[in-house]
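During the reporting period the student researcher (J.K.) took over the structure-prediction task from the postdoctoral fellow and processed the backlog of single-chain submissions. One of the processed entries is reproduced below for the supervisory committee.
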Amino acid sequence: MDFLHRLKPYHLDVLKEIGNIGAGNAATALSTLLNRTIDMSVPDVRLVSFQELPNQVGGADTEVAAIFLRIDGEAPGSMFYISSLHETEQLIRQLTHNESFQLDTPPFDELGMSALQEVGNILAGSYLSSFSDFTKLNLQPTVPGLSIDMAGAILSYGLLPLSQVGDYAIVIDTHINEIGDSATQTSGHFFLLPDPDSFDIIFSALGVEMDE
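J.K. obtained the following structure tokens:
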């Protein structure tokens, strides 16, 4: 991972721009699906060590909602969209207008969970598509899974079955807003965890020289 020492602020700016393009595409798709104006933005993008990932969402014991998928293609890896239960409940209530939707005690409302799954599909697909378009890499998502559990358990469950886990993740903060009289904002985090060999491929595609 020596190339990490060669990363410059503008490389992260490129990742942020990719995130904003993905957010724009996702906002358009959500607006069409819901027939309401949805706005999304990416306030920050950063590289975080794998050990620090749970701290990005409040700690390993924090209960969260997560969408998880594998990335196949030229730069394989894993992707998570993780949000706190409170933020997730707020988002689904906002999208479905079901103020009783909750994630504290099962069974969970099926319509709300379907909405969450669809939002996760749209978000993951939009981000991965923008990433693929920008880097010109062939990246294909697997069918996403949905889980409600502690952050540490979700990350471990998603990664332990893999034979290789990278040392770092690209964290893309995401804000989702519904535009209108009762506009509200919810937040979540995308974790993009390239497999070890994929980091070189991704950053080479972003213009980070590996041979210096």
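The committee noted the following: The chain has a mean pLDDT of 84.
J.K. will present the remaining backlog at the next meeting.
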